[in-house]
Specification:
The protein is α/β, with parallel strands linked by helices. The protein has 10 helices and 8 strands. A hairpin with a 4-residue loop joins strand 3 and strand 4. Helix 5 packs parallel to helix 9 and helix 8 crosses helix 9. The protein starts with 8 loop residues before the first strand and ends in an 8-residue tail after the last helix.
């Protein structure tokens, strides 16, 4: 790509449970582009910190952990597997403990700064689809296409409940709803890169919508791939 033809980027931001991970991965597959699950990076650092018994309130130790932790993604055709220092930690990353750790770590400016270059390195030809909470506002503000997915907290809790139950994880719907509301508040009110739509993002409410319908709506936003 030349300077006047930058590598295209589609950012899909939104709160936990909005469907951004599933949608982003499917859109990337349709386009034949690379895919970055930015939230997995923060969860991975949280898991690595837990393995090393690092206090989540110790920014200096967490920054060292960020630089020392090797994170790799492997798509096995069915899902994206995440390897931390060579060990498959995909299932551990999906736990509510990892999610809470990621939310706490994401509020630390030094950790966000340490991960910025790593995230931007995923921008490679022919293009990148990336999901997270600040992809369109902080990491790729020059992205040509930006989407903000949302859904009611109740529906997001139900989606998470079904996902975890299908994996044999025992949770309560009420407990998940409380956790989602608490995380929404943390993410929206943190001092650094708070969760909010980019000014030029297209907002899509996924409440009541099927996965394929949402994918089609996102694809329709891309000039050369729209219906």
């Amino acid at each position: 790509m030349t300077d006047d033809q930058p590598i295209p980027v589609l950012t899909i931001d939104g709160p936990s449970g909005s469907g951004k991970g599933t949608i982003s991965r499917l859109v990337a597959q349709r386009l034949g582009w690379h895919y970055l699950d930015s939230g997995a990076l923060y969860r991975a650092i949280g898991v690595a910190a837990g393995w090393a018994d690092i206090d989540l309130s110790d920014p200096a130790a967490l920054v060292r952990c960020t630089f020392d932790t090797e994170i790799a993604f492997r798509d096995d055709g069915n899902e994206l597997r995440v390897l931390i220092n060579g060990s498959d930690a995909t299932d551990e990353l999906r736990t509510e403990t990892a999610g809470a750790a990621a939310s706490a770590i994401a509020a630390i400016p030094e950790v966000r700064a340490a991960l910025k270059a790593r995230q931007r390195a995923f921008r490679q030809p022919p293009g990148l689809v990336t999901d997270g909470r600040d992809m369109g506002t902080v990491i790729f503000p020059d992205a040509g296409h930006k989407v903000f997915l949302d859904a009611s907290a109740e529906e997001r809790a139900e989606r998470r409940y079904k996902q975890l139950n299908d994996k044999g994880v025992s949770v309560t719907l009420a407990g998940l709803l409380r956790e989602i509301l608490a995380r929404d508040a943390r993410d929206a009110n943190r001092a650094v890169a708070p969760l909010r739509p980019a000014e030029d993002a297209v907002h899509i409410d996924t409440t009541g919508l099927g996965i394929e319908e949402v994918v089609d709506r996102v694809m329709a936003l891309l000039p050369s791939h729209g219906a």
